[in-house]
Amino acid sequence: MKSRTTERIRKQFVVVVRGPAAFFFDPDDRLVVEDFPSAMGPVNLAYTTRWLKKGDDIILPGDLWIEIRGHATTLEDALVAFGNAALSLLPIFSLSANAAVDEPEIELGFDNTPGATERDYFQCYLPPETEILHVVRRIKVEPTVALLKAVTTHREAERLLRGANQYRLALGSWRLGRESLALAHLWMALEAITKTKLRAMCESRKITETGLASSLGIAQDKLDSVIRRDFLLQGDIECYKKGKQASDGFEHGFLEYDKMREHSKEIRHRMASYLRRALFDLCNLAADVIDVLTTDPYDKPLGYWPVVKYFRGKLVGAGDELSTPGSAYPFMRWTPSIKSAGFKADGRFDVTLSETLTAELAEGIKFRTMSHEVWKPG
Questions:
Q1: b or e along 122-137 (b: 16 or more beta carbons within 10 Å of the residue's beta carbon)?
Q2: Do the Cβ atoms of 95 and 193 come closer than 8 Å?
């Protein structure tokens, strides 16, 4: 006869979380991870993208969507344990796509035990996806699966995941004006994987840390810094010096912000490239998978920020009153609409917009367009 505790533990639950990401899965794609450990025991995770119908022939990628199924004692236990399990793999997805992903939030949770006649249910209000377009890229499922296996089965998986998570946080600040914060996270990622690289070098050479220091002609207390500079950053002395100075200045507040930002702008892309390649190498990822994940567009970091659009022009006409009566300023009422959206022959997702401008100007004042600019995060 089963005890009450056993019966409660064997309840089945479904938890669903979602949130924004700079990558998407194809409409028919999902990545499934079975028997992943959680605080409540093994769970099955399914990662996909929510696709939004915006017209007869128009669908757009929405949030990253994660479904978690497993057993727990209560719905509250399931919400916490299942949600944490799903979040723990996000750094690998971000590393694979070289694209930012925010931490999604729990939207749904419910008892899914077969035969039950009363089930606990939870729902959190999450706002629908924004209508503002963002630059996103497709994630490749097979290389991502290979990366997941390589990292999670590595004996230093915890350190690798810590480094990958700092890389994910760096991508979260990948835009103009936030270079210093991005670089600070890249440096923390570098610090997180230093010992993994050191141990790998000792193992491959069959020597101790003392022996490694001797073979490199340095004191043992210099090992970490030399590993970072000469091996993880591939001997890029400028990258090492400016990265360390900017990171220390950011952490301890001794470096002027303008100088810190300038250092970050100069080396941010290089450091990200070195670090991402080092993470691939350290988890022993196959060379053909690395080739896929380091070719265009995956060689370029992508933050999750809106597409920025500008109109520039001239207000033409006599008179010092420029705005309509009751308005504080001259204004162009901007109405964007989506003309088409879909996949191109090369696999990229393409959106064509139509822009309508309605001038709200004083009588006798006209607007003459000089340029229309669209900028993606840099």
A1: beeeeeebeeebbebb
A2: no
Cα 94 → chain centroid: 4
Asked if residue 131 lies in contact with residue 137, where contact means CB atoms within 8 angstroms, the answer is no
Residue 4 burial (C-beta neighbours within 10 Å; 0-12, 13-18, 19+): exposed
Q: Which tens digits make up the pLDDT trace of 147-178?
A: 999 999 999 999 999 999 999 999 999 987 78
Please tell me whether residue 160 adopts helix, strand or coil conformation.
Answer: helix
Do 302 and 22 touch, CB atoms closer than 8 A?
Answer: yes
**Cis status of the peptide bond prior to 37, with omega within 30 of 0:** no
pTM more than 0.70: yes
Q: Say if CB 330 and CB 323 are below 8 A apart.
A: yes
Neighbours of 47 (CB within 10 A): 22
Predicted confidence at residue 245, as pLDDT, reads 80
Query: Distance (Å, rounded) from C-alpha 4 to C-alpha 263?
Result: 61
pLDDT digits (tens, 9 = 90+) for 190-215: 999 999 999 999 999 999 999 999 99
Q: What is the number of other CB atoms lying within 10 angstroms of the CB of residue 373?
A: 9
Pairing, β 137-138 against β 23-24: parallel
